[in-house]
Amino acid sequence: MKPIILTAAITGAETTRKDQPNLPITPQEQAMEAKACFEAGARVIHLHVREDDGAPTQRLARFEESIKAIREAVPEVIIQISTGGAVGEAFENRLAPLALKPDMGTLNAGTLNFGDDIFINHPKDIIRLAEAFKQYNVVPEVEVYESGMIDIVAKLVKKGIITHEPLHIQFVLGVPGGMSGKPKNLLYMIEHLAEEIPSATWAVAGIGKWHIPTSMLAMVAGGHIRSGFEDNIFYHKGIIADSNAQLVARLARIATEIGRPIATPQQAREILALPGN
């Protein structure tokens, strides 16, 4: 079976220390957590940043601090910044950290209801963001929350607006307002993506209770997996996880036991077609 890439979404923009006391917030805490996750098997760190009081931010200097700290602690890991920010963040602020030229960044493919709010990704802004990825030579991971977004991405690929090859798609399933992580939903998303963008690779982030079901299906279906406190704060139902690394280690153990090797850092870079590979 082909190697699997595990991504750790270590902080997010919504999770709080009240709900998850072990949430890493400062650049130093994020660097320590990134190193532990890498040692547990993660090859990508999905990065949101916070101020010292825990408030989500897209402040460029804060991203720079965290990226520097992570690279010093674990130089082999792939850093993938979020351009989503917190819901309601101004688009210019969301786009700005691409100028730091991380390995990867997220490109959200559409607007959706997000809990009690609306996560707005205007079609014109999606195009602007896609152009910024090319400008800064950063590899996009396209975030897809429901099946119609696959059609949107396929059109942008056909028009030459999104050009990275092979494109890497992340199915984010279980957001209140988006598609749930039911197995039949993920199977449909996999099939639909194969029809529209046959060369694409894919991963899944199952939110909350959908983390384990989507992860197990991804393992046997040839996909990759995101885990971490952005998506799920529990190890078992009602039992708070000790760390992001604990969640990563569980996936790495199960994948190894069923015959899917954990991608080496170099294999992960080749699969994602990062520059220089």
Give a structural overview.
It is a single chain. This protein has 277 residues and is of the alpha/beta class. It has one domain: TIM Barrel. Helices cover 38% and strands 20% of the residues. It is built from nine helices and 14 strands. The chain has helices at 27-40, 60-73, 91-95, 123-136, 148-158, 183-196, 211-221, 244-257, 265-271, and strands at 6-9, 42-47, 49-50, 56-57, 78-81, 104-108, 112-114, 117-119, 139-144, 168-173, 201-206, 224-227, 234-236, 239-240. An eight-stranded parallel beta barrel has the order 1-2-5-6-9-10-11-12, surrounded by eight helices. Strands 3-4 form a two-stranded antiparallel sheet. A two-stranded antiparallel sheet has the order 7-8. Helix 1 (27-40) crosses helix 2 and helix 1 packs parallel to helix 8.
Task: Draw up the topology in text.
Elements: E1 6-9, H1 27-40, E2 42-47, E3 49-50, E4 56-57, H2 60-73, E5 78-81, H3 91-95, E6 104-108, E7 112-114, E8 117-119, H4 123-136, E9 139-144, H5 148-158, E10 168-173, H6 183-196, E11 201-206, H7 211-221, E12 224-227, E13 234-236, E14 239-240, H8 244-257, H9 265-271
Parallel strand pairs: 1-2, 1-12, 2-5, 5-6, 6-9, 9-10, 10-11, 11-12
Antiparallel strand pairs: 3-4, 7-8, 13-14
Helix pairs in contact: 1-2, 1-8
